Amino acid sequence: MNILSKNDRPDYPALYKAANEASISSQKNYLKGFKWYLWLSVISSLLAIYIKESKEAGIIAAIFFLIIIFLTIYQAFKRFDKIWYNGRAVAESVKTRTWRFVMRAEPYFDSDDINIVKRSFCTDLNDILI
């Protein structure tokens, strides 16, 4: 029995699969980094309460703060959020164009020569990336 997951779309162009996988991967990386950022912020804030009472708490809070700065810089350079959004936009645009092509909806109305419609579809997919 061949069961496809909801992300497996064999009828869509390879561009869809690539954009979808990039979007999903970047979303996971972005959310993972954000969760670490939140947890470290909460822990450092709680440790900051005990700075006057314990030197070790201050050192650990400072280390967590440095890790938070590193995570922020890393996220800014990797731009997982931008890849996530752009990948999703490309994947959804490819799905829309593919559906229109298969249904022969605008702008892929039936033509005397199917190759003209296919070229138009390929050109549209290329334009999505630009």
Features:
single chain; 130 residues; mainly alpha; 77% helix; rod-shaped
Q: Briefly, what is this?
A:
With 130 residues, the protein is mainly α. Helix content is 77%, strand content 0%. α1 packs antiparallel against α2 (55-78) and α3 packs antiparallel against α4 (114-129).
Plain-language structure description:
With 130 residues, this protein is mostly helical. Helix content is 77%, strand content 0%. Helix 1 (14-49) runs antiparallel to helix 3 (80-103). The mean pLDDT is 88. It has one domain (14-129).
Question: Based on DSSP secondary structure assignment, what is the total number of beta strands?
Answer: 0
Low-pLDDT residue intervals, each spanning 5 or more residues: none
Number of helices: 4
Distance between the termini: 39 Å
Topology:
Layout (H helix, E strand, L loop, with lengths): L13 H36 L5 H24 L1 H24 L10 H16 L1
